[in-house]
Fold:
Amino acid sequence: MATGALLSPAEAATGSIALKIVSAGFIFGMSGGSGVLTFKGVEYPLSVGGISAGATIGASGTDLVGTASHMRNVQDIQGIYSAVGAGLAVAGGRSAAQLVNANGVVLRLRGRQIGFMFSVDLSGMNISLR
Structure:
């Protein structure tokens, strides 16, 4: 039996993702933005939103790029990505994150943050297809 016959067409795949996010807050923070997922050669527009609660002060804009792995279909990108973290970014700071949603999609993101934002919080980021 050929090993190729054992592969399922629904096996997990990886796409590329680019996000633009704007955040602001004092104690409670809000963020929003947009992005594009490229999956199996097709571009899908995304909406991004989120809130945070904790020690949050400042405002920033972040451009992130990376990968979305463990996807079986494009709808898997949707959902809430949450992470516990602490960070400080000052004018032009670099950002990096690894997040997972309930569908098992793993986002590995890196980018540049412009502005000033200090946070020690539990953040939730919601991504949906537009």
About this structure: Strands lie at 13-39, 42-71, 79-90, 93-100, 106-129. Residues 14-129 form a domain with the Lipocalin fold (CATH 2.40.128). The longest strand covers residues 42-71.
